[in-house]
């Protein structure tokens, strides 16, 4: 029997488990506590009871049943809701984690398991020297994407030990703020802009960083591809439903790793989640550019994004050029000095132009002039149960609209039709070899999409009209400063596609395995010699590029693909009896027919008034201008992922070069967190 004094003390027993590495020391302790004891006091009592001399500053309580951390040490046990049946683990907040990077290399480092994933990714990126961490996140591979590999080799274990880059000596392990490593917020160049290798002086400045020169090269340089046999073992999506599986495992940025079931030494994928790559600069972003290039390369090799045969050969040529250039690293080093001189001259030239108010070759037009295009183009309208109707008209592009007339003389009157391109889908329909330069326009209308094709006569005409259409779809006119750069980007891409009919290199004399640079579909279609010859033809147009230039060109070509930046999810729209695919991009949502892959409707973020989630039924509801509203449930992933995608893209659209690199984390969580 207990005495009356014991009964009135209101103390109760709380079982605590300590995660420590000391042998012959007990790990479970039963402490007598009261409800008004604060969490910090509980820590102190536990440490005094253990009587082990070590640094406990990184330790905190993890509540197993509630799946939450008790980080507010001033809160009492009553306020936290802790009672006698609670199982509390006293464990380090920073634990080992294996990360598979976009270049398929695995790094092992200590990461905070108690902070929100958004902050954890920021710390990881500082260690790896990747700027703009807000563009990346952590992805947990689903079981479906691993099945194929397990069937191929049941005895294999991942990751292979020798492939792991161990960064466990990172300052983050102690719970202190991360040393920037090679990450620099100053405008001091830390990479060679030609070869992408770290500047020797940079390594000296940050010699205490775990990211040594050798480790940095592993992250900033590309290495030869895997064999076709290894490629065949990897998961390759065949349908839109398969592609939806790739995006199901994104972690919640507003919760910690432990809260999402991630355990110590688990493996996650570090990937670019948001396809808006802000301020890419070779002088500071060698690792970021290389990892972005690698993510694009693997997406193309594994056919996660569709591209034509012509485009696949261009991608293969750039990859092959990378590998051959890497074997001539001494040549890259020799060119560094010359490039530095060129940079100084270019900078002085740019400064001179700026001070003079512009170059003489670019005469400023009257600012009141409204830019327009006027040309003879062919209009193609698909018709059901009949052939396409193709007819030539006189087209005028003004502001964000296209008007067409019977001929040039009738342009002063009313147009046959006026097409407003704001919010439309613009898809290139190009085959350079066949001299086909088409623009496919999917214009939103009340009952779906109005499909229109424009056919241009040549590359120059196509580049001008395509650039105008792309800007108009975003609500911008040709007066926008990005119009001319967009034209040049399109012309540059067409030039890459315009492969030389005669290869100057002899395929026999080139030590290249073409099967390593194209997807399996093309290795089955062509023999090795045929692929080598065709890759070399495409290679002629990029042979003068530096390594970093070639990577940036590869990324640019990837961005030009129609499917670029689309993340797919299987959803069921309210009122619909069948499943559809929802494509989420940086500026729009697209409803896609799951069976045919054809877009049904597009909704622009710029027209969005508000969105919210009904967490009880897991339904996302969005309101747009003109009284348009949609609602859907997500079937292939948690609806929180789509909610975070929308909020994340809106958050990223607020960035500007005038800002420093400090992010408004509170705004990010306000837009993406939700209230579950």
TrEMBL record:
GO terms for biological process: cell-matrix adhesion; integrin-mediated signaling pathway. One of its GO terms (molecular function) is integrin binding. Belongs to the kindlin family. One of its GO terms (cellular component) is focal adhesion. It is found in: Cell junction; Cell projection. It comes from Pachyramphus minor. This is FERM1 protein. Keywords: Cell adhesion, Cell junction, Cell projection. Residues 378-474 form the PH domain. Pfam families: FERM_M, Kindlin_2_N. It comes from the Eukaryota. CDD domains: FERM_C_fermitin, FERM_F0_KIND1, PH_fermitin.
